[in-house]
Amino acid sequence: MTEKTGSRAGSNAPSGQNTQPGQIEPGVESNPSEFNELESLRLDIWLDVACLFKTRSQAQTACRAGKVDVNEQRGKPNRLIRPGDLLRISRTGWKQIVEVKGIHDQHIPKAQARTLYVDQTPEPSPEEVEVRRIMRDARIHAPAERPDKRERRELRRLKRQ
């Protein structure tokens, strides 16, 4: 049995030439999009790659909680999605509507990730914008610094009353 040295098993490179993973073999032309032409991909992976959630774990949690619908059906993390699918993602206070345009199974830069979908979320009405602004302004903000000794005594006195 002869053993190939210096090349990977299953490689078309002539013996003596070492090809590394991710390195293009001599004489072979390739298109980067060729490697990721997938027909379908798990929902949780796609949500993470498309940067709609920070992590795959957050995407899985949202899917399990019923926050993601695929084509008007509840989306489970292992559901396969394809280009053309319509996703509805429930966010706090609003819903995001996204149409899948492309599928990629590995992390890519955020600018490229935005090309994987078309955001069809309708613009909020002026009334909704005003309500959100009022709610944001009405939030109680934490003090900038810790209370000093005098203020702590005053707070204790108020709590006892």
Outline the structure in words.
With 161 residues, this protein is α+β, with helices and mostly antiparallel strands. It has a domain at 34-134: RNA-binding S4 domain (Structural Genomics Hypothetical 15.5 Kd Protein In mrcA-pckA Intergenic Region, Chain A), CATH 3.10.290. Helices cover 28% and strands 16% of the residues. It has 5 helices and 7 strands. The chain has helices at 43-49, 56-64, 110-113, 126-138, 149-160, and strands at residues 41-42, 68-70, 73-74, 80-81, 86-91, 94-100, 117-119. The chain has a 5-stranded antiparallel beta sheet. Strands 1-4 form a two-stranded antiparallel ribbon. It starts with 40 loop residues before the first strand and ends with a helix.
In short:
The chain is an alpha+beta fold and 161 residues long.
What keyword list fits this structure?
single chain, 161 residues, alpha+beta, five-stranded antiparallel beta sheet, two-stranded antiparallel ribbon, 7 strands, disordered N terminus
